[in-house]
Design brief:
Elements: E1 13-15, E2 18-20, E3 25-29, E4 36-41, H1 45-64, H2 67-96, H3 100-121, E5 127-129, E6 140-148, E7 151-155, H4 161-174, E8 178-182, H5 188-200, E9 208-210, H6 214-222, E10 228-232, H7 235-244, E11 249-253, E12 259-262, H8 268-280, E13 292-296, H9 297-312, H10 332-347, E14 351-354, E15 358-359, E16 362-363, E17 366-369, H11 376-379, E18 386-392, H12 395-404, E19 407-408, E20 410-414, H13 418-427, E21 432-435, E22 451-452, E23 455-456, H14 461-467, E24 469-477
Parallel strand pairs: 7-8, 7-10, 8-9, 10-11, 12-13, 12-20, 13-18, 17-18, 20-21
Antiparallel strand pairs: 1-2, 3-4, 5-6, 6-24, 11-23, 14-17, 15-16, 19-22
Length: about 475
Amino acid sequence: MTLPASLPDFVPLFIDGHWTGSARRQAGTAPFTGAPLPPVCECEEAQLDDALDAAVRASIQVVEMPARERAARLYAAAAAVRDAAPDLARIMALETGKPVRDGLTEALRSAETLELSAQEGLRIEGAQVPMESSAIGAGKLGVSLRFPVGVVAAITPFNAPINLTAHKLGPAWAAGNAVILKPSPQAALTIHRLVEVILGAGIPSHWLQLVQGDEAAARMVRAPQVDFVSFTGSSQIGEIVKASSGLKRVALELGGNGFTIVAADAPLEEAAEACARNSMRLAGQSCISVQNVCVHRDIYDEFVQRVVHHVDRLRVGDPLDEATDVGSVISAKSAMRIQSLVDAAVAEGARLLRGGTHVGAVVQPTVLADVPAHCEAVRGEVFGPVIALMPYDDLQSAFDLVNAGPYGLQAGIYTSSLPLAMQALRTLRMGAVIVNGTSTWRSDQAPYGGVKASGIGREGPRFAVRELTEERFVVFNV
């Protein structure tokens, strides 16, 4: 697949309906090749003030547009994103190291996310409250309705930039809000192109402000003009966002350490192939990537052999090559961090079966066996192409290990037993439990989010639209 047709000299901001530059710029490099990328403009203080004020004005205008017309704009944007998907995938491969096949899948998913958002914007419902159930309510009619929150500050990461941005923009606009978006600078080119596409499809320019810079993000979160903060990123930064946002409502989609349990009665080949593939997909840079696999001791040795076999079949290389399965991680610095976690696990007794090395930002798919449960490669978030395999003797010990960690995003369990599956659902403190699937599974219409250090709130258009509206009760004295 060829490179994107053209790249801008710099990545601009979009404020109050206009593309604009700034004197402050952040340099970037393509993670796979190390080649320089166009610098990313960062907001000056006055520019962020303009963006915040424009978002407040826009919040009044967005809600005045009928929901059916907002939905029509979102459908048009979805169609345009679908048409532009190959170009978006190429830019994403160049900028983030994501294999172009995965980027194409993501771009097409983002179009569907916008369509799902359009549908949910037409389903915002109120409820009649049974006033006569109490004496004080006699003779009154009570109705609870939902209204847009106003201005949504959205902060998105590099690892799935298009679809995660669609999960911010689509529900916010469907619900009648304005958005001020701060994407990762490591995916700024990709989001610049996405914004060009959706504006060209008829999304009103005042619906969106696009800003950049860590200082801008910090000010956005604190700004009184902002009514809701939606953040996807690390748990560490999520804590800062929550502490800085004051009394604003927040949605935080944070980290995970991707446990999947393989019971003695599991479909062995299916589980091994899925765990191998989903641990290395996107070079492991997903908060629901398979990171840890607990396998019943009776089938452990054979499972390990099968995982190694499937990992060996993966092709590592140029993310712009359609044959590539595993590209680079986002930076050489990230690769060194991953390497240090692997080295520490081996020093503490883990067996290194594959990988364990990196060149630049390319980390070889790594398989660790017999990993001690206390290792940071188990308890923490590796966010790299590393799978840790551990045997267990009784299922409760596996459940205890999963629940002992700081995260609670998603977990998978492979079993042929419905009672075991239900036991996992009741026992595992997770945002989702995937039966006969891995922690990596996600469908965009489903509720997505975690507990503990994995976050607050839920995404998925139906659930996000509710998060991004507020309840207002009206009483009629009749």
